[in-house]
Amino acid sequence: MYSYQIGTDYYQKLTKEQVAMIFLYPTKKDLKAAVGQPLKYRETSAFGAEYKRDGELLGWNRPHLTSMGREFSATVTMKDGLIAKVS
Fold first, then answer.
1. Does the N terminus or the C terminus of the chain have fewer Cβ atoms within 10 A?
2. Residue pair 69/32 in contact by the 8 Å Cβ criterion
3. Inter-residue contact 56 to 16 (CB < 8 Å)
4. Which among 86, 1, 9 is positioned nearest to 47, based on CA atoms?
5. Is the separation of the CB atoms in 25 and 61 below 8 Å?
6. How far apart are CA 13 and CA 36, in angstroms?
7. What is the number of helices (H) and of strands (E) in the chain?
8. Residue closest to 83 by CA, chosen among 13, 22, 34
């Protein structure tokens, strides 16, 4: 069996537009109401963790995957492991 693994150096060079995660909130309004709390999310990448304790994260709610609410996209700014800003 042949196995190929992309190195972490390559993955770390990807921009936030190239990787995205699933936010586990029914609406963007609910996500914005969670400022100051830890982020509820689901990883989607097979190449390593997308979550960053500090910085910007790009993601969506996908109702067909989460069975909750409306579809939306958002950029979440994290600081010290807590949601600092949602746009």
1. N
2. no
3. yes
4. 9
5. yes
6. 28
7. 3, 5
8. 34
Q: Which residue in this structure is represented by tokens 């190449």?
A: 47
- Give the 3-state secondary structure of residue 21: strand
42 within 8 A of 24, measured Cβ to Cβ: yes
CA–CA gap between residue 40 and residue 62 (Å, rounded) = 14
Distance CA 25, CA 37 (A): 13
The residue to which tokens 């586990």 are assigned: 24
Show Cβ contacts of residue 16 under 8 Å, excluding neighbours closer than 6 positions.
Answer: 56, 57, 58, 75
Tokens of 40: 């509820």
pLDDT tens sequence across 31-73: 999 999 999 999 888 777 888 899 999 999 988 888 888 899 9
The total number of residues written for the chain in this structure: 87
Pairing of β 55-61 and β 21-23 = parallel
18 CB neighbour count, 10 Å cutoff? 10
